Amino acid sequence: MSASRRSVSLLKTLLTNKTQTRAVTYMPRPGDGAPRPITLIPGDGIGPLVTNAVEQVMEAMHAPVYFEKYEVYGDMKWMPQEVIDSIKKNKVCLKGGLRTPMGGGVNSLNVQLRRELDLYASLVDCCNLPGLPTRHENVDIVVIRENTEGEYSGLEHEVVPGVVESLKVITKFCSERIAKYAFEYAYLNNRKKVTAVHKANIMKLADGLFLESCRHVAAKYPTITYNEIIVDNCCMQLVSKPEQFDVMVTPNLYGNLVANTAAGIAGGTGVMPGGNVGAEHAVFEQGASAGNVGKEKMVEQKTANPVALLLSSAMMLRHLQFPSFADRLENAVKNVILEGKYRTKDLSGENTTQEVVDAVIAKID
């Protein structure tokens, strides 16, 4: 009996010590670490520069992804079917900017892609980065924009010469879907408030339906504060007191304007990540473009800022459930910004894209 008791006592000691010294760790399922294929669209203008930056950093980290690259340009009439098929197969895409021609009847490939894949939610993360001075502090805004209808429905025609009719389409289904996405995002990310942006005082039926849908969804999330703001007042409040906003949910056109405004306030389009997501697919890209794609001088001098797309690719890694790689990449980028030695011209620096990329790679732990 004495030996038996000693054995039990020793077993208890071993178990106790094991509990004290070892934490519970994630047990990966078979195949979780297998490299994932990503559809890559370098795009126009600065696109190839910044997508190449991501390729270099992913290789340096030995991230479990590889790219299937397709040459697509904004002046194409249609997105090539092989590209659509690739994204449908891989479920995830990383893309540079695609230039949309002004007028001429050429459709936006960006809009085509969102419709074809039903990428109904655009998310732009606009927040201050430590070490990057801006006019306003404590800016941390997430703009969630409906991506498939509204003024971007593409329903335009010339009634008679000199008179063009453009239809804005708002549906209850899409409005409730984007509202639910915004509230789910807020709930899962410990956000406190969702603000709906609208122009229902003028567009009483269309934007009125959008607001009704947001209110219906808001009632299901009592722990999250919900409020509404007219889009013109929203823009004024953004540039005067942006810290009052948390998560913003908007119809299509307003979201484009609000996201670029918020990005400018928080440090510029060159550092704001974003993505477009649907039920099945996701496309990650620079969160706010504001014309960067077409800056030929930036392309010639190779001074495009890669930070926005690098942070977007960190979002992509989280989406793929590779959080440790996402953290390493995000921390490296933020450390380079904080240190302040390597910055492109838009951040008041003199460095090239490649010099910033090299600095990020050097910071990867």
Please describe the topology of this protein:
Blueprint: H1 2-21, E1 36-41, H2 47-61, E2 65-69, H3 81-90, E3 92-95, H4 109-116, E4 121-127, E5 140-146, E6 150-160, E7 163-169, H5 172-188, E8 193-198, H6 206-218, E9 225-230, H7 231-240, E10 247-250, H8 252-266, E11 273-277, E12 282-286, H9 296-301, H10 307-319, H11 323-339, H12 353-363
Parallel strand pairs: 1-2, 1-3, 3-12, 5-10, 8-9, 8-10
Antiparallel strand pairs: 4-5, 4-11, 6-7, 11-12
Helix pairs in contact: 2-10, 2-12, 5-6, 7-8, 10-11, 11-12
Give a short summary of the structure.
The chain is α/β, with parallel strands linked by helices. Helices cover 42% and strands 20% of the residues.
Radius of gyration equals 23 Å
Helices and strands, in N-to-C order? HEHEHEHEEEEHEHEHEHEEHHHH
Q: Strand order within the widest sheet?
A: 2-1-3-12-11-4-5-10-8-9
Q: What name goes with the CATH superfamily of the largest domain?
A: Isopropylmalate Dehydrogenase
- Helix-strand category: alpha/beta
Question: What's the CATH first level of the largest domain?
Answer: Alpha Beta
The general outline is globular
SS strand fraction = 15-25%
Tally the beta strands: 12
Q: Biggest sheet: strands, sense, closure?
A: 10 strands, mixed
Remind me, CATH topology of the largest domain? Isopropylmalate Dehydrogenase
Give the overall average pLDDT. 88
Count of discrete alpha- or pi-helical segments spanning 4 or more residues: 12
Give the termini separation.
54 Å
Number of domains as seen in the coordinates: 2
What share of residues is helical? 40-55%
Unreliable segments of 5+ consecutive residues: none
Under the CATH scheme, the architecture of the largest domain is 3-Layer(aba) Sandwich
